[in-house]
Each structure stands twice: as C-alpha cells, then as structure tokens.
Amino acid sequence: MTRTTTKRRSRMSGSSRKTATGKAPASSPPSRGAEAALTAPVRSILDRFRLEDVVSHLLRRAHFAAEERFSREFADEQITPRQKATLVAIYQRPGLSQNMLAEHLFLDRNTVAEMVKRLVERHLLERRPAPGDRRAYELFLAPDGAAMLNRVMTRDASVERAILQGLPKGAEKQFMKCLRLIVQTSH
C-alpha cells in the first residue's frame, strides 16, 4: 500500500470517531503535502475522475493501437505509418518541398527532415536541388520507394479495416466523420 493510500485510509477511518460533542468531525482537507492545497471542488472532481472516460486519453490509446497493428502487419517492410504517408504524398505530389510535405502531413519540419533523411538513405525517396533555389530541395519517389508502395498499399486497406473492426457494424463512416470533425475544429 502506498503512503498516500495509507494516509487516505487513515483519514477515512478517523472520520468515524466522535468529537467531544458526540458528532463526527467535519470532513477536512489533508493537513500536509500538495493534497492540502487542493480546493474542495477540485478534490471532488479528482475523486470522480476516471482516465478511461477522458477523450484525449482514449484517442491516444486508439492511436497507439492503430500504430501497433500497422507495425505488426508491416514488420517485414520496416516502415511506419508516417513513412508510408510520406511516400504516398510524394507519389501524389512529385517535387514537393520538405516544408510543404511537413504542412501536408501536419508534422513539424524537424521531424519531417529527419524522416526524409532516413527515407533517402534507404533509397525510398530522392532529394534533388530545386531549380532556381540552391537552398531548397524537391522530393521524388525513388524506384525502391515505388516497390515499397507496391508491397504495402495492397495490404494497407485490410489493416485499416482491422483497426475499425471493434466498432458496431455500420458505425465506421460515422466514426470517421467524427474524427474529421475533431480535426477540423481543432485549428
């Protein structure tokens, strides 16, 4: 049992004692530590708080579950969902700059720069100097990147379906609509 739990149980059992007037003492905040600084309304919220009812927590866990399923399916390819999205984006928009790629993927520039570096090293992307701007580069799908997409994209839809398999039949479209609404209203 932790110290906090012991203190809490001690407080709870102490509340059954009677005062000199014969009444149970009023519930009082803990006398020491950070708990003493909490207001009564916040303590009430914390006493009812359930992490499994927190939207952001559930979205994060769902994200991890989806990435785990993707990783298991494509372990032989050694590719992440972000890398797949990058290859698809470059296929769809050949010559895209790293900055535009970062905006398209909603990732920070440093993350995209590191990911592009790895994909270039693996010969999945080609980085070429942009005409007219020596500091900028354009990105293109390399032949090995095309081969990767040939292997991955034919299996990708089944992974997406498997991620949604726990939803009630027919709820997939509504779930996707709700996710899009969350994303659209978060700007």
Describe this structure in words.
There is one protein chain. The protein has 187 residues and is mainly alpha-helical. It contains 8 helices and 2 strands; from the N terminus they run H-H-H-H-H-H-E-E-H-H. It has helices at residues 3-14, 40-48, 55-73, 81-92, 98-105, 109-121, 143-164, 172-185, and strands at 125-130, 133-141. It has a two-stranded antiparallel ribbon with strand order 1-2. A hairpin with a 2-residue loop joins strand 1 (125-130) and strand 2. The longest helix is centred in the C-terminal third of the chain and has 22 residues, at 143-164. The radius of gyration is 27 Å and the shape is extended. Residues 1-19 have low confidence and may be disordered.
Range of helix content: 55-70%
CATH-defined topology of one domain: Arc Repressor Mutant, subunit A
Give the tally of β-strands. 2
Number of helices: 8
User: Per the principal axes of the C-alpha atoms, what is the gross shape?
Assistant: extended
Keywords:
single chain; 187 residues; mainly alpha; Arc Repressor Mutant, subunit A; 8 helices
Summarize this, please?
The chain is mainly alpha-helical and 187 residues long.
How are the SSEs ordered, and which strands pair?
Blueprint: H1 3-14, H2 40-48, H3 55-73, H4 81-92, H5 98-105, H6 109-121, E1 125-130, E2 133-141, H7 143-164, H8 172-185
Antiparallel strand pairs: 1-2
